[in-house]
Amino acid sequence: MAKYVLVGGGEVGRGNTSYETKEIDEKIVALTEKSNPNFLFIGLASSFSDSYYDTMKKIYTSLGCSCEYLKKKNIINNPNIVQDKINNADIIYFCGGDTIKLLDDLKNYNIIKILQAKAKSNVILVGMSAGAIMLSKKGLSDCRMLRGETSSLEFISGLGFLDLTICPHYEKRKDELPKILKKEDKVYGLENNTALIIENSKIAYLKSQANANIYYCYYDNDKYITKKLF
Questions:
Q1: Which alpha helices (DSSP H) does 69-183 contain, by range?
Q2: Is 123 within 8 Å of 70 (Cβ atoms)?
Q3: FRET partner for 226 with CA separation of 20 to 30 A, picked from 5, 118, 177, 214?
Q4: Domains (ranges, CATH) in the chain?
Q5: pLDDT band at residue 22, thresholds of 50, 70 and 90?
Q6: For residue range 170-211, what is the model confidence (pLDDT) as tens digits?
């Protein structure tokens, strides 16, 4: 069965940004237990997927991976390439960006069933921010705000590969979360540079910056609880 890594956010060194997720990337590769794993980057959530992939290729090549890229142009021109690249991958990395765009593309290009089948194998499924929401039951997102469709954050339903709810970029969204959170929901608040690692239904925690934290947020009757996990 698949192992999952849900990353709350963080800079990967694109453009003039610093590289903050080193320890998380190293752990992702280590989870494969292979000396030369195949890394597949799926950039459907990003409007700048080419430059995003260039950065990730440098990182994962340096970690011993052979790197491949799946983008919309590939899918439109050669649908068969989707199954070939996904089936060959040891790591499938879904980048950050627009969660709705990612979900729509996965649905419209019939990729969901291919991923569901792949998840039954020993693959590492990684989601950064929007990608993490996609793999989860749901997650707190700003994508409709950025589209100008709403004035506030809202929960977006993912594909439910994992039966949990997340809030990526928790340090930026923690003040809004109590106003939106339903009484029956329990949420993992992932700050930038933190990750959940899920293997055989067991959850472990990881961080790549010492001051980054993971929280568990929920209502107990009418009292809002924030519990620091890591």
A1: 72-77, 80-88, 99-108, 112-118, 130-135, 143-146, 170-173, 177-180
A2: no
A3: 5
A4: 3-228 (3.40.50.880)
A5: very high
A6: 999 999 999 999 888 999 999 999 999 999 989 999 999 999
